[in-house]
Amino acid sequence: MISLKEAALSYGERVLWRDLTLDVEPGEFLVVLGPNGSGKTSLLRALLGEVPLSAGTMTIGGRPPRRGSPLIGYVPQQKAMSPAMPLRSRDLVRLGIDGHRWGMGRAGRAVRARVDELLAEVGAESYADVPIGTLSGGEQQRLRIAQALATDPRILLCDEPLLSLDPHHQQAVAELIDRRRRRHDTAVVFVTHEINPVLPMVDRVLYFVDGRFRAGTVREVMTSHTLSDLYGTPVEVIRAGGRILMAGALDAAGHHHPGGEEHGP
Ligand SMILES: Nc1ncnc2c1ncn2[C@@H]1O[C@H](COP(=O)(O)OP(=O)(O)OP(=O)(O)O)[C@@H](O)[C@H]1O
What we know:
Pfam families: ABC_tran. The protein is an alpha/beta fold.
């Protein structure tokens, strides 16, 4: 579904990453990790056709990236929505519908039925007519996912969809995305700071640090050896109770602090 060959992305002189060769298969769950500013969101923006690669090639769904492709569903980073915003849940979901395919303009029954179907898919029927600004973060996030699924995409790009959700909602939202990819073989690229809520779902990890990266299975990448090498500083990876904890001179966002304290994210 996604194929990158020796891809690089730079802003001016600054190289975010380079020599990235990676294929993502249908139904695969790829998690993208890395400290702030390491280029995770920029990878999604390149896949969306919003920024060009500075080197190498990239195809998504077998074609070069282009804006507005119905093959791709995108769950953007959350922004606070004002309670005064007049948009209802069903309006937000409807915005994701490809008007051409579903006969928008004629305000067809097909569109309304599709919106209902999407609301049901994410379990949001009970607040379908509620203004979105009055909903909780978890509820809003379900709607963003429904919107992203509106074109029945083959690829779902998610930018920190669990941010600011409590553990219960993190789990619910992660399961929603996982169910989608299992039922429809949708490939998932999932940017996050915290791997644990999605650990059971992850097929592969792409981990960016300071212009370098490692890609592979959780077992391959999330090891003391690999991450110490990637960060260039000792990092201890501990597996406990089905979770991965990182100890060493890193803060929770994965930034290196010389002489920093030990802790796990
Ligand atoms: N259009 C742009 N022009 C110049 N620099 C940019 C542009 N967009 C992003 N950057 C810079 O590129 C770097 C990577 O940004 P990006 O958003 O991809 O990081 P990220 O890994 O998603 O970070 P975070 O975890 O904080 O969301 C940042 O330092 C950012 O300031």
